[in-house]
UniProtKB/TrEMBL annotation:
<feature type="transmembrane region" description="Helical">
    <location>
        <begin position="424"/>
        <end position="444"/>
    </location>
</feature>
<feature type="transmembrane region" description="Helical">
    <location>
        <begin position="209"/>
        <end position="235"/>
    </location>
</feature>
<dbReference type="InterPro" id="IPR005185">
    <property type="entry name" value="YccF"/>
</dbReference>
<dbReference type="GO" id="GO:0012505">
    <property type="term" value="C:endomembrane system"/>
</dbReference>
<keyword id="KW-0597">Phosphoprotein</keyword>
<feature type="transmembrane region" description="Helical">
    <location>
        <begin position="320"/>
        <end position="337"/>
    </location>
</feature>
<feature type="transmembrane region" description="Helical">
    <location>
        <begin position="491"/>
        <end position="511"/>
    </location>
</feature>
<keyword id="KW-0109">Calcium transport</keyword>
<keyword id="KW-0472">Membrane</keyword>
<feature type="transmembrane region" description="Helical">
    <location>
        <begin position="289"/>
        <end position="308"/>
    </location>
</feature>
<feature type="transmembrane region" description="Helical">
    <location>
        <begin position="110"/>
        <end position="133"/>
    </location>
</feature>
<feature type="domain" description="Sodium/calcium exchanger membrane region">
    <location>
        <begin position="543"/>
        <end position="685"/>
    </location>
</feature>
<dbReference type="GO" id="GO:0006874">
    <property type="term" value="P:intracellular calcium ion homeostasis"/>
</dbReference>
<dbReference type="Pfam" id="PF01699">
    <property type="entry name" value="Na_Ca_ex"/>
</dbReference>
<protein>
    <submittedName>
        <fullName>VNX1 protein</fullName>
    </submittedName>
</protein>
<dbReference type="InterPro" id="IPR004713">
    <property type="entry name" value="CaH_exchang"/>
</dbReference>
<dbReference type="GO" id="GO:0005774">
    <property type="term" value="C:vacuolar membrane"/>
</dbReference>
Amino acid sequence: RRGSLCDRRCSTINNDLGELGCHPHRPRGPTAGAPPHSEECESCARTTLTAENAVEANKLSNNYKFGFKKWKSHVTARPWEDRSEIVKELYSDLTALRGPAGSTVTCGNVLYLLLFGWWLSLLHGLVAVVMFLTVVGAPHGRLCWDLAGYFLWPFGKVIQKVEVPKSQEAGVGESSALLGGPTPRRWRPWCWEGTGYWRRVGTTAWLCLGYPVLALSHGLVCVTSWLLIVTIPVAKLSARSAARVLLLPPERVLVRRIRMTEVPLEGEVILCCYRAANPYYYKYSVHGLNVFAINLLPLVLVTLLLGYLDSHNHLSSSTLKFSLALLSIMPLSYYIGMAIASISAQSTFAVGAVVNATFGSVTELTFYISALLKGSREGSACYAEVVKSALTGTLVGCVLFIPGLCMVIGGIRHQEQRFNSRSAGVSSALLFLSVGGVFAPTLFSKVYGKLVCGECHNVTQNPLGHYLCHNCHFDLMDNNGTLYYSHVQPLVYTVSLLLPAAYLVGLCFTLKTHSHIYDIHVSGCHMPGHHHSAVVHWSRWRALVILLLSTLCMSACADLATEHISPILTNSTISQYFIGVTVLAMVPELPEIVNGIQFALQNNLSLSIEIGNCIAVQVCMLQIPILVLFTIFYPTNFTLVFSDLHVYASMFSVVLMNYTFMDGKCDYFQGTVLVMVYFILLAVYFFAPSPSGC
C-alpha cells in the first residue's frame, strides 16, 4: 500500500519533468506547493538530484541503476557561470590584470624560484651574451636580458606586445597587397609580423643560436611543472613564452612591472602571472579528463615499450616491469570508466546495460585470464591460487574497505550520513546469494573430500597418541578423480549457470519492477531558457574508440604483469595470499575508490556503498562464471575450490557489512570498524603460509 500511495503522489512530478524533456528514473517526493504527505509517504523524498542537461540527467540516473558503473565526473562541459570562483581561476588565462592581491612572496612562488627561476634567468643571460657577440642579434640580446630578470621572479610583472609605428613597419619590409598580398592568417604562426622580420639576418642568427636552447629549456620546465600538477601555472607560462614571446620581433616586446596606481596598460598583454602554484589544480581537467589520468598516460607507453622491446631484462628488472604494468592499469581503468559512462549517458537503456555488462569487469578479467594462461603454459598451480586470492581480495576490499573508507572520510565533514537502507539490503541479499553459490563447491569438497597430509609426527610417542600433521588438504582426485569429475565439477557448472541468472533477476528487480526503491528525483535538467545545451566531452564513437583502445592496452599491461610476476612469487618472503589480496586486487579498483570518496564528501553515501557492493556482486556473479566458462574451452589449473581462509574471510565480511547497513545511517566510527577489520584480515593473509603449489 505504501508503494502504491507513493507512486500516485509522485506521478505528477513524472509528468511535469517529462514535459520539460527530462526523464528521471522514478522521481520520488512531493511536488512544489502540494500539501504535506502522511507519514506513510515520508520516504518518498529521499534523493533529489540536479542536472544541467538531459545527458547529465541520464548519467546521474545510471549511477543509481544496479549493474551500471558509478561515475562522479561530468560527461558534458559544465556552463561557465555554474562553476565556482576557485575552479574559474584554474582555467583563467595568464593575460588578465588584477587589482591589489597581497604580497607576491608566497610558498609557491619561492618554490618556483628554487626549482626553475634561477637557472632560467641564468640561461637567458648567457643567451643574451651570445646574441650580443653576433652583433646582428643585438636586439634579441636585449630581449633576452630583459627576460632574464622577468623569469627570475615573474610575479607582479607583465609582458606586453606593443604597437610599432607604420612607418617603422614599412621599413622592415612588410609585404603589402601590391607586392603579392599578405600571407593568409591561417598559414601564419602566432608571432608572424610580416615577411620582413623573418628575412632579417638577426632573426636567422636568433633561430639558429638562441631560440632552440631557450625553447628546449622552457619545454623542460613546462613538462616538469605540468607533472607536478600544483605548478600548472608555470607550465602555461613556459608554453606561452616558447610559442609566443620568443618568436615576436624584439621591438614588439615590452617587459615591465605592474604598479597598482597606474592606468590600464595600452597594448596586448601576453603574460601576467601572480601565483606559481595552486593546490586546487587536482580538479583541473582537459576534455573531461582529470589531470592525474592525463599525466599517467605516458606511463602506459613507457610500460609497453619497455616490456616488449626489452624482453630479456637488459635495461630493467622483472620487478620494475611488473610494478609499471600494475600502475599502468590505473589510468586505463579511468579511461574505461569514462568511456562506459559517456556511452551509457548518450544511449538507450538497453545499449547502456550491454556496455556495462560487457566492459564493466574487463579490467579484472584481463589480468585473471592472462595469469591463468601463464600458469597453464608453465604447468604451475601457483597462478590459479593467486587468481583466487585476487578474487577474494576484491570481494573483501569492496565489502569492507571501500565503504569503510568512504564512511570515515565522509564522516569527517558530515556528522551523520544516511543512505537508502532498502537498496543496500537488495545488494546485501545478492551478496549472500553470490557468496553462498561461489563457495558451495568448496563446502561440498570439505564434506565429501578425503583429507590428505604431507607429513605427520607422533607428539606423545604413543602409537595411539596424538599426531601433528602439516600441509593437509582435501584430495578430490582420489579413485581417479571420481569425486571431482562426477560430483564437484557438475556442481561448479550448475552454480556458474545459476549465478548469472540470479544477476539478471536482480537487474529486473531493481531496474524494472521495483525501481522505486532507489527514490531518485532528478530536477532542474534541460529546462528551456535556464541551461545551455549539452556539449559532451566524448561523443559515442569517440568513447567507443577510446574504450576499445584502452581495453587493448589493458590486455597488454595484464600480460606484462603476469609475465614478470614469477620472481615476486618465488623470491618474495611475503605470502602469495597477501600479494593477491592486496596488490593484485585493489590497485585496479583505485579509480572506483576515488569515485566513492567524492560521493561521500558530497553526503551521497548511497552511491559510495553501491560502488563496493556492485563490484563485489559482479565478482561473484559475472567474473567467476566467466572464468569457469573460459576453463571449459581452454583447460587451466583453475577450480572453484577455495582455501578455508578465503571462505571464512568472505563470509565474515558479508555478515559484518549487512549488520552495519541495517539502520540506514552511519558515522565515521562505523567506518573505522570496517577499515580496522579489513586490516586485521590483511594481517592474517600476511602471516599465512604460502598456498600449495607456490
